[in-house]
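Support request, please re-run this one:
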Amino acid sequence: MATFFIADTHFGDAPLVERRRRHFGSVEGHDEALIARWNAVVGQDDDVWHLGDFAAGASRAHCAAVFARLNGIKRLVRGNHDTNRVLELSWTDPPVESARITVRDSEGRNWRLFLSHYPHRSWPGFWRETRHLYGHTHACLPDTSRSCDVGADACDYRPVDLTMLIARQDAAEQAPEEMAVRGLR
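Re-run finished. Output below.
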């Protein structure tokens, strides 16, 4: 069993798909591609944390149909587009505004994570080596040595595992501001 992270799938969101047109020709093409990419990496017994904006502008029926086709044990950190049609899906646990979790990587190391739809400049556990994963920005913010965007736009439109995210953070050129002003990375 592995743990994956994703945000900003925006299933059924015609205005967003218009911006993603070079990748997907239509809302249907967008949704089918994201479902296929999700299921190519996530198994039925894997955990998936969706960090918000699961769908936008889609009907309840469309949201439920997409949700049913996605592999994994799914949890939601609520995003700004997640209305009742998303919140009432059969998530493993009730949706939350943010979460503090510990996840073991493929080498057996435990990582403390702060999950939120929105990026934070500082977050709970910041000075205790807690890493921050977020969405919302659609790959507009650079990664830092402690935080990164797990949105579909930033992750090849598929869920990503912790090992890949930690590697991205470790390779980031910037440190979070609170560390940078102290000369830390």
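The two ends are 32 Å apart (CA to CA). Residues 27-41 form the longest helix (15 residues).
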